Amino acid sequence: MRYLELKESLKDFTVFSLRDIRAIDQAFHRRRLNEWQEKGYIRKIIKGYYIFSDLELNEGTLFEIANRIYAPSYVSLEMALSYYHLIPEGVYGITSVTTRKTYRFRTEVAEFSYRTVKPGLFFGYELVRNDGKTFKIATVEKAILDYLYLMPHLRTLEDFRGLRLDKDSFFEQVSEERVKENLERFASRALARRVRDLWRFMENA
Description:
Layout: H1 3-9, E1 16-17, H2 18-22, H3 31-38, E2 42-46, E3 49-52, H4 59-69, E4 73-75, H5 77-83, E5 94-98, E6 103-106, E7 111-116, E8 125-130, E9 133-138, H6 140-150, H7 157-163, H8 167-173, H9 176-186, H10 189-204
Parallel strand pairs: 5-7
Antiparallel strand pairs: 1-3, 2-3, 4-5, 6-7, 8-9
């Protein structure tokens, strides 16, 4: 298979794997991928996953790549809080939640980090379509719960103040009812107490 044939066949793929190629051409040899990398046609993200070199790298593209290279996963934690404009700073790297082991990939396009949750807590995300890209990202309520759950040291008023959550964005977007519904599935009194304390802090901020 020639490069232009491959590109046409995978034109709808943001990121692709050797398996994707062999679904089109069973006889495809992986050495062609090395040749195309050397020529600058494609870029390797991690072992086994590639993008075309002319792919526009934007937020939606990077989120979709994050979902694909370490599945199952969805964008959450700091990156989701930034996406919803709850925290003021830009976030370094794409943060996600997964049922697989905690892992971090440092690549030439971005740093992708994943935190583990048990399968019963892998919920509360939605499919978002943006600029032709589709990615999974936590709802604003689940992003907050994921963050508090995976950062158990955040428990004091000073800790909450350090998050620098935007009060207006918080109360415009976050549903207390949905927070409570999601919280029940965690079955954690300690987390429920910290969520309650955070809510009171935001009301008085």
